[in-house]
Design goal:
- The structure is a single chain.
- By secondary structure, the protein is α/β, with parallel strands linked by helices.
- The chain has one domain: Rossmann fold (3-Layer(aba) Sandwich).
- Helix content is 46%, strand content 15%.
- It has helices at residues 22-32, 43-48, 51-58, 70-84, 99-102, 112-135, 163-185, 208-218, 226-237, 262-272; strands at residues 10-14, 36-40, 61-62, 88-93, 139-149, 188-194, 248-251.
- The longest helix is centred in the middle third of the chain and has 24 residues, at 112-135.
């Protein structure tokens, strides 16, 4: 059921790759709620994915941009405001990549050139995006900027590798830049800490099926799906959350407040029998 929560609102959605991605689901839900947007991803990701299909379904345009390039981001913002006919009301940053994970480098044996690349793509790109939006005064008052994160920024998940550090940095950027965006422009900045979700990117992490199964058994409401996250993001883009900012918001079925669940206890006890 749609409520027209985003009627008349314009934005940019970063990171949609295929139908499994949270950004893809978010674009569909934003469209259903009356929002208009441009879609963007890195040129290499556009070759791998099927973004034109989503663009057609949501009556939107695709603008290739490398989110680590200030020049690309400036062109993206200029073109987006031109296409959409004015300043932006919402931005979704759904970008993350670890070369160390991809190449199988253990956390204790990183290739630091890979570390820097992953840090730039996964976290610093968020600062760069907001800096361009801020300097160009491209956001309407009471606009909303959201980035996606994961609990490994707060707790140890050994196989999540340097992505955990990237997400911790991402969350810090959201708070620090969010202060200035709120004070100077009345724009909200938040992160959503999502349950482990079987996206194309997520499934590249070693032991990811274990993450999903464990989190599902720990969470009283079970894991939040990509669609759940999309709907939560829509609520943060809407006027219903006008004074929610600088928050890391958990969309995880209650996982973040759990110590242990009966299901997990039972699984361990069975192992001891």
């Amino acid at each position: 059921m749609a409520y027209n929560l985003l009627k008349g609102k314009r934005g940019i959605i970063f990171g949609a790759l295929d139908e499994n991605s949270i950004a893809w689901k978010t674009a569909e839900q934003v469209h259903a709620e009356g929002g208009t947007f441009v879609l963007t991803n890195a040129p290499i990701a556009l070759r791998m994915g099927t973004l034109n299909k989503l663009a057609e379904a949501t009556n939107s345009q695709v603008i290739p941009a490398d989110a680590t390039s200030i020049e690309d981001l400036e062109k993206l913002v200029e073109k987006a405001t031109e296409i959409l006919g004015g300043k932006l009301d919402f931005v979704l940053h759904s970008i993350g990549m670890s070369m160390n994970v991809r190449k199988g480098n253990h956390y204790t044996s990183q290739n630091y050139e890979f570390t820097q690349k992953g840090w730039d793509i996964s976290a610093v790109s968020f600062h760069k995006t907001m800096q361009v939006l801020y300097k160009k005064d491209a956001m309407n008052e009471w606009g909303s900027i959201v980035a996606l994160t994961y609990m490994a920024s707060q707790r140890v998940f050994p196989d999540y590798n340097d992505m955990a550090d990237n997400k911790a940095y991402l969350e810090s950027i959201a708070r620090s830049f969010g202060y200035f965006f709120g004070k100077d422009k009345k724009v909200r900045v938040n992160t959503i800490s999502q349950s482990p979700t079987p996206t194309t990117a997520g499934m590249g992490v070693k032991g990811f099926n274990g993450f999903i199964a464990y989190a599902d058994k720990m969470s009283p409401l079970g894991n939040a799906t990509a669609l759940d996250c999309a709907n939560y993001t829509v609520s943060l883009f809407s006027d219903l959350t006008k004074r929610v900012t600088l928050q890391n918001l958990y969309n995880d079925g209650g996982f973040s407040n759990m110590g242990v669940s009966m299901e997990v206890m039972d699984a361990f006890m069975k192992g001891e029998e």
